[in-house]
Amino acid sequence: xxxxxxxxxxxxxxxxxxxxxxxxxxxxxxxxxxxxxxxxxxxxxxxxxxxxxxxxxxxxxxxxxxxxxxxxxxxxxxxxxxxxxxxxxxxxxxxxxxxxxxxxxxxxxxxxxxxxxxxxxxxxxxxxxxxxxxxxxxxxxxxxxxxxxxxxxxxxxxxxxxxxxxxxxxxxxxxxxxxxxxxxxxxxxxxxxxxxxxxxxxxxxxxxxxxxxxxxxxxxxxxxxxxxxxxxxxxxxxxxxxxxxxxxxxxxxx
Length: 254
Ligand code: PEP
Hints:
Elements: E1 6-10, H1 17-31, E2 39-43, H2 49-56, E3 62-66, H3 83-87, E4 93-96, H4 99-105, H5 109-121, E5 125-130, H6 134-138, H7 142-153, H8 159-163, E6 166-169, H9 183-201, H10 203-208, E7 210-214, H11 219-226, E8 233-236, H12 243-253
Parallel strand pairs: 1-2, 1-8, 2-3, 3-4, 4-5, 5-6, 6-7, 7-8
Bound molecules: phosphoenolpyruvate (PEP).
Protein name: Triosephosphate isomerase
Main location: cytoplasm
Keywords: Cytoplasm, Gluconeogenesis, Glycolysis, Isomerase
């Protein structure tokens, strides 16, 4: 099964509209006249989506993502943004269940599942993040945690939803720490996640779904990680804040 790799930049709470414009100008000048055997996604903060849509709206090589959406349609939810509102920004993807949303903002597997279903109602493609903490890994709970996150987070997705979903396996201990999972650790976790998808949705869907690795991916480690058979791209934080570094990861990893 050939799965097209997908490289997504998660800018987190970095880059307002003017820095988004600077990044876009730099990145676009570097990718001009080039084609990539990979999907490229950029996830700016909400307030920079309009600028990103202005810069990348006509660039077929780059798709945009939001970093979160509400589990509700509209109403008295101060500070929240609905999936339907996001569709107006020419978005294709939405990152859901990032470990920072889980740990800092208390998002549960059930909330994340509700967000996944809302995103699918408007045809947004979830980049669904899962991953264990160091304590969980060292306590022998890796498989239990991933099983719970996948079974609840992806509950009630249809086969069609599944084709449009990307899973990002991100060991929490590797996010923003400079410590990357070894290629072997990452491959083992990815193969296990794929087996969970097979249990829940069947072997055919499991063979098709793309599973990104996330956690301190850099230009220097992208090739080794991406060479693993069950790793289909990367979700990148820090190293995707600079156009050349993001591009180097895409090139080295594809
Ligand atoms: C992330 O934010 O999802 C991430 C993987 O960050 P970093 O690449 O900085 O570890």
